[in-house]
Amino acid sequence: MLLLLLLVGVVFAQECKPAKNFYEDSQRGWFWKEYCPPKEEKKEVKKEEKKEEYKLAPLEVKIPWHILDRLHPDEIQKIEKEARAIAIMYPTRHNVLEHMKLTRWIRDRSVKYARLADYYMRQDPNLSYDIPTALPMTDALIVYRQRERKKVFEKYAKTMGLLVVENEGCFECPGFRLVLEDFKKRYGWDYLVVQAERHPNLVARLGSSNFPDIFLVINEKGYPKHFRVGSGYKVFSQLEDAIILTLFMEGYVKDEKIVAY
Q1: What CATH code is carried by the domain that includes residue 211?
Q2: Which of the listed residues 120, 145, 164 is the one where a domain comes to its end?
């Protein structure tokens, strides 16, 4: 009998292991002489092949005008983007006009904000000093800007200059050379004019495509750095503005009042 039990135990250990609730379950297990729990048959689940689905564009632009002013700005951007896409795909009269109306609505909101921002800033003593409210104040700002700019240009006259790339078909280039001469006479800045046809490698490195292409060159510790300040013809004041803005963005100028955005 003992040998039989040992043999049964060996067979039991080889064929299966009793479940965790073998001695606890009153419905199954040792009481019912079920040494092996019933094996669950694994069902094979067939994988469904995914079909390619394409998103079809709506045929008509629909703008929710009745709730547009209460929507989140992100939602309005999504609506504008979708309306533009539909109008491009299906440029019917309705689609084009609806998209243009939405564009005007957004622009009007931006203009309204700009006007109210100016109005509220004038009422706040901490912000109103940034806004010239009268001609004397405007004139004083212009005089201050001219005086301080002159100091900046004279300070960097020996370490900075202008590089201008021209090409043979540039009809604006001769006129811009006159601007460069005036700039040199007033501030003492040197400039160098380079013909694109004679220096193709330089043009490729600078990425010049519109002419005249104007660069600010800074000689810093014997190593020249260049920054594009504009492409195309510029009058004297535009050239000044472009150079000052570049110097401010690169950290050579700290006074933001002399910058014209």
Answers
A1: 3.40.30.10
A2: 120
Residue 61 located in a structural domain: no
99: in domain: yes
- Ramachandran assignment for 99, one of left (phi > 0), alpha (psi -120 to 50 degrees), beta (any other): alpha
Q: What's the residue count for the chain?
A: 261
For 182, residues 6+ apart whose C-beta sits below 8 A from its C-beta are 236
Question: By residue range, what is the domain housing residue 93?
Answer: 68-120
Contact 244, 149 (CB under 8 A): yes
Report helix angle 73-89 to 93-123, nearest 10.
Answer: 150
Q: Say if 30 falls within a structural domain.
A: no
Report if residue 130 sits inside a domain.
Answer: no
Tens-digit pLDDT profile for residues 10-33: 444 444 555 555 555 555 555 555
pLDDT (tens digit per residue) in 179-200: 999 999 999 999 999 999 999 9
91 and 181 in a single domain? The answer is no
205-to-15, 58, 152, 199, 226 alpha-carbon distances in Å: 78, 46, 29, 10, 11
Phi, psi at 217, each rounded to 5°: -110, 125
Lowest mean pLDDT among 38-47, 51-60, 126-135, 154-163: 126-135
Closest CA to 25 of 13, 42, 38, 11: 38
